[in-house]
Amino acid sequence: IEQASNTDEQVSEAEQATNLATIADYAVATKSSVRSSYKNNKGNQVIICDNEKTKDVLLPKVKEVFNKQTVKTPPTKLPTIMVHGIRGNYTNEELFTAVQNQNAGRGIIVTQDNLKILFTKQLPTGTSQAVIRISGDIRDRIKAQNNRLCVGLISCLVTDHFYIRRCNRCQLYHHNHDKCESPDPVCGKCAEKHDTRSCHSTTYKCSNCTISGLAKTNHPTYSKDCSSYIKEQRKLRDNIPYYEGKNL
């Protein structure tokens, strides 16, 4: 991934378009495969390369063309899935082995490089859920198998997973309560300035939807149908290259 971030010396839209056209011509001339090019939510130009070889070929040219900007190569954000209905209590290592061994014959070739078990969670039903980070190629292969992975003696449903951290102290996103810098707590039920655990209100009000000026606020911040949370999930999805151009 090649990302050009703006410095103090700004580039006009016309110059930006010329720069991208130059890189496009270079990609054609060097037979380099580029998956997509777009501006992210920070306004930075991003070029998604198809593989490391393409990145190595294009990077010097991108640095030459975007000489008025800072060029960086952040790690690729990969898709994350949730595997539902796992029977049995697996460690991460045991689950990795089960997924690797039981799905190879279905064309899902798992390695340490393309699949990582993030965590598993036991449910009251006696089954487990697992959150797994995978490569785009493995995600496509799972989709080709009707979004199913074989684990043990069952074929488990797979769904895309877009988790956003939410502080249960101030209710804002992208940090946990131990990193919270807000001077006052905010209730996750009624949006007033007190701890959620001490709230006795019978009326719900979402502080995040209220801050964002959204129409529907009569729900707690932890509601799965919270419009503000869903909006943050969409932002995350749109910054993962795998989902570029895909309808979800």
Summarize the biggest pleated sheet: 5 strands, antiparallel
User: Taking all residues together, what is the mean pLDDT?
Assistant: 90
Shape: flat
The percentage of residues in β strands lies in 15-25%
Topology, number of strands: 9
Class derived from helix and strand content: alpha+beta
Question: How much is the radius of gyration in Å?
Answer: 22 Å
Tally of individual helices: 6
Low-confidence stretches: none
Question: What is the N-to-C succession of helices and strands?
Answer: EHEEHEEHEEHEEHH
Q: What quaternary form is this?
A: single chain
Termini separation (Å)? 23 Å
Strand order of the largest sheet: 6-7-5-9-8
Helix content percent band = 25-40%
Topology:
Layout: E1 2-5, H1 13-29, E2 34-39, E3 45-49, H2 52-65, E4 70-72, E5 80-87, H3 92-103, E6 115-122, E7 127-134, H4 136-144, E8 148-151, E9 154-160, H5 207-211, H6 227-238
Antiparallel strand pairs: 1-3, 1-4, 2-3, 5-7, 5-9, 6-7, 8-9
Helix pairs in contact: 1-2
